[in-house]
Amino acid sequence: MSNEFNSISGSKRSLHVQVAREIARGILSGKLPQGSIIPGEMALCEQFGVSRTALREAVKLLTSKCLLESRPKIGTRVKDRASWNFLDPQLIEWMDGLVDNDTFFHQFLGLRRAIEPEACALAAIHATAEQRIELSETFQKMCDVSQAEVFIQDAWTDIDMRFHNLIFNSTGNDFYLPFGNILCSMYKNFIVHSSEHGALCLQEHRDIYEAIMAGNADKARAVSASHLQASKHRLPDEV
After folding, report:
1. Mean of the per-residue pLDDT values for the chain?
2. 100-232 has which CATH code?
3. Could you confirm whether domain 15-89 is CATH 2.40.10.10?
4. Is this prediction's pTM over 0.70?
5. Which residues touch 138 (CB under 8 Å, ≥6 apart)?
């Protein structure tokens, strides 16, 4: 496991975050197997070209994400996959490129199916007047972007992400808020991968929007579930 990592001493990012990212990607890719002991402090400092302080901060960050644990007289061990905090937005970002896209996006869509229809139902019941106004303004922007003479994918992605994030924020349930953050971390790559043109799903967003605005929880749940079928996101059939 010697010389597993390259020096990052010239990086403009925060050193400890960059070190954490590289170690995390080694763990997530399997190069640093579950249960293995990572190289010692001196070896890692030399490989990365950083101080002990930066390395210790990196290990502390990875420990907080349940990727590593330090044991006296043993060293720093990679924790089992079941302990990893896959709901951490930073961890999701670090996974980019390490997992087959189709597999990764099917898993992401599966998570959305499990929670987003219920979030829409809750938003229909609990959204405040201010949140309904904001959702209405956001949906109108979706219409404007979709119907523009020149379609801009980035503009659609941003407003589409905003629309769905607003729904999580409007549930009246604080436990849904982190999923809105996860959505923001994953959504841009997902929508570019799965949709050729935002206008193709404008009517489905309209159905969700109108159900929430009407306070119809059952319909909001149903139209959201329909929107999240894999066949509507240019993903291959699930195994």
Report:
1. 86
2. 1.20.120.530
3. no
4. yes
5. 159, 162, 163, 166
